[in-house]
Specification:
single chain, 81 residues, alpha+beta, 4-stranded antiparallel beta sheet, globular, disordered C terminus
């Protein structure tokens, strides 16, 4: 197993790193931070856990959706200007 970028909806949300014969998730986006450090059997299991987690938290899913559409970036640019 190798390190791998994990995306959800086209947005990088973390990386997976080998841990024995399993993988460990390292979150890089706040909406999935509760899964940080979790150990999974494979990438498919990890992606399923991310999807389940985000479905439970519609606010987190909306935050990621706004990032993938660029809305978050535009909002920052407007608030700075």
């Amino acid at each position: 197993m190798e390190k791998q970028v994990i995306e959800y909806g086209g947005v990088p949300v973390g990386i997976s790193v080998p841990e024995g014969n399993r993988i460990k998730f390292i979150a890089v986006k706040y909406p999935v931070i509760e899964l940080d450090g979790g150990v999974y059997g494979n990438v498919t299991e990890l992606r399923r856990a991310i999807g389940n987690h985000l479905r439970k938290s519609s606010e987190a899913a909306q935050a990621l959706a706004s990032v993938s559409s660029g809305a978050g970036t535009r909002a920052k640019a407007l608030s700075i200007a």
